[in-house]
Every structure is written in structure tokens, then in C-alpha cells.
UniProtKB/TrEMBL annotation:
HAMAP family: Ribosomal_uL22_B
Pfam assignment, any one: Ribosomal_L22
Protein's name according to its UniProt entry: Large ribosomal subunit protein uL22
Main function: The globular domain of the protein is located near the polypeptide exit tunnel on the outside of the subunit, while an extended beta-hairpin is found that lines the wall of the exit tunnel in the center of the 70S ribosome. This protein binds specifically to 23S rRNA; its binding is stimulated by other ribosomal proteins, e.g., L4, L17, and L20. It is important during the early stages of 50S assembly. It makes multiple contacts with different domains of the 23S rRNA in the assembled 50S subunit and ribosome.
CDD domains cross-referenced by the UniProt entry: Ribosomal_L22
Family: Belongs to the universal ribosomal protein uL22 family.
Keywords, ordered alphabetically: Ribonucleoprotein, Ribosomal protein, RNA-binding, rRNA-binding
Gene Ontology process terms (BP): translation
Gene label: rplV
InterPro entries, alphabetized: Ribosomal_uL22, Ribosomal_uL22_bac/chlpt-type, Ribosomal_uL22_bac/org-type, Ribosomal_uL22_CS, Ribosomal_uL22_sf
Quaternary organization: Part of the 50S ribosomal subunit.
Amino acid sequence: MSQEKNPRALKENEAKAVMRMIRVSPQKLNLVAQLIRGKKVDRALADLTFSEKRIAVDVKKALESAIANAENNHDLDVDDLVVAEAYVGKALVMKRFHARARGRAGRVEKPFANLTIIVREIQATA
């Protein structure tokens, strides 16, 4: 009586993690996402650990979640994982006003972003 299971959207050798509503502009988040694209996960984790960007902590958390999903849910080997994709999307923008001189108001925008990380297992060439 239950519904049929949805087909898997990713390939068998991939796993993903999505982090939504991150309080940073998508442009700044994309700078950190570019840092890890295409790298092996251990190298990407090391780069995020020593990055001076504030948002690198949240990106590292998302990458660790993708690695855990690959290991626990899809039985992939952690040593062979590579960051296949890391892309950023816009979420909502909170609009606030800040008092300025002579009775005027300045608009302050507080953007949010979404981050998706897909890790892929590659076969080691021996």
C-alpha cells in the first residue's frame, strides 16, 4: 500500500550533502567552494581547516556530512573520494533599514545562500 521508492538521483558512486540558509552572500560562499572543487576530500578538508574565511567552518561541516553519507549510506571508500561538485545557490535576502543622517534611511541587505556538495568515488589506478 505504500508508494514506490523514488529512483536514486545520483550515480552509484556518488553521495551528496546540502546545507541551506547559510548566513553569507552567495558570492563569498562561492569563493570557498571554488577552493575545494575537484580535490581529494582529505586535501579539501585540510584546505578548509586552515582557510581564514569565516564561512570555511560551515563548508567543512557540509563536506564532512557528504563524506559521512558516502561512507554510511552508500558504502563508498573514503580514501577514494573526490569533491566532484560544489555549487552555491541563492536563498532569501532579509531587507533591513539603517538610520542615516538628516532623517534618511539606508537599506541593508542580509543575504542567505545554499550549498550543495557532491563527492564521487574514483577508482585508484594501481
